[in-house]
Design goal:
The protein has 309 residues and is α+β, with helices and mostly antiparallel strands. The chain is 16% helix and 34% strand.
Amino acid sequence: MEDFLKREYSLAKPYRGLGFSSSSQWDLMGTAMVTPDHVRLTPDLQSRQGAVWSRIPFFLRDWELKVHFKIHGLGKKNLNGDGLAIWLTKDRMQNGPVFGNMNQFVGLGIFVDTYPNADKSHDKTQPGTQRAFPYISVMLGNGTLSYDHDRDGRPTELGGCTAMARNAIYDTFLLVRYSKNRLMLMVDVDGKQEWKHCADITGVRLPTGYFFGASSATGDLSDNHDIISMKLYQLTVEKTPEEEEEEEEVTIPRVDNMEQFQVDVQEEGMSGVQFFFTLVFSILGLGVLAVVGLILYGRWKENRRKRFY
């Protein structure tokens, strides 16, 4: 498998393609600001939202995104928040409650969540409810699914892992690879310069024409959330004729064989109102036919009478 850096979809120093000019390839939103070393989505202050979004719709089918990020602040462990998100979505530049982006989004979201909302409310005696934070998770949105912030997105999570990425002494990276309808997420946060498996989901169907972005939000708790680079690589992948045929045009994101992405198509029954109007118009139609029939019958009788006289 070979890869090629696609600069038009990448964000890296010295951030020349970022700004408000007509030639820029990336837009800033909210509190996001550019420095020589990073794009700061939110500062270590309460109630901030910021984002950076690509202007260019994305049409590659096999790709890899390497994100170099940094989350750091003065707050003690579990007294910081909220995290950042990496996006590939249909809509761009939308404020909202999901790490600074809209809820019920359409597309892919990768969440680096630094605050354990769910573990504050779950029964500590129940096994399996606890997880260590920061936690990185994957969600695919189809426009109807909602990210449940109070439960750290668990109801819609496709996969994830713990990654000690906050206030790390090493550079922190995540890697998203999408090829042959398989989505893989890997992390490198402990300075070993090797990728650690985080999530692997097969049967993922992603439409093309979406936009890359990164966003962040702080609430009562805060942190600095920085993007140092987002580098997009096109993958050259050999595919069998069967795999080529399998690459159907997708209009709504979905995961094969997952119930929450199945849309039931039912034969439309007739509602009460529809039945009433159908009945009324049927009666009216029959009435009109009866009147026309009577008129024609009367004329026929009259013509016949004239013939005899």
